[in-house]
């Protein structure tokens, strides 16, 4: 199996979810960073923290990266997700700004 290499900020986010570390999750983002989950945007540290608590870490989530493709500052992944809120596979789009994430988008499935 080929090892999947992710940009450091994306790897930090995955690890923060799997380690149930809300502080590391929030710290992975720029101060203006946001999570967009099926069009619902949670911005800034408190918005990012709120999403982590309701939909990810607070829901006991585990994230498994299945594939990844990075072009410039954008990384697109396919990931498996297991939590009390959602179980299944999704796509994720990360935009990196320096050593932090500007955004993490989970687009609606069609």
TrEMBL record:
This is SnoaL-like domain-containing protein.
């Amino acid at each position: 199996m080929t090892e999947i290499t992710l940009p450091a900020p994306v790897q930090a986010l995955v690890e923060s979810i799997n380690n149930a570390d809300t502080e590391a999750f929030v710290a992975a983002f720029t101060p203006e960073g946001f999570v967009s989950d099926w069009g619902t945007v949670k911005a800034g540290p408190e918005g990012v923290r709120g999403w982590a608590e309701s939909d990810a870490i607070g829901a006991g989530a585990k994230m498994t990266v299945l594939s990844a493709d990075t072009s410039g500052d954008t990384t697109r992944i396919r990931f498996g997700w297991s939590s009390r809120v959602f179980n299944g596979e999704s796509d994720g789009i990360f935009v990196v700004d320096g050593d932090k994430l500007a955004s993490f988008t989970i687009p609606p499935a069609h």
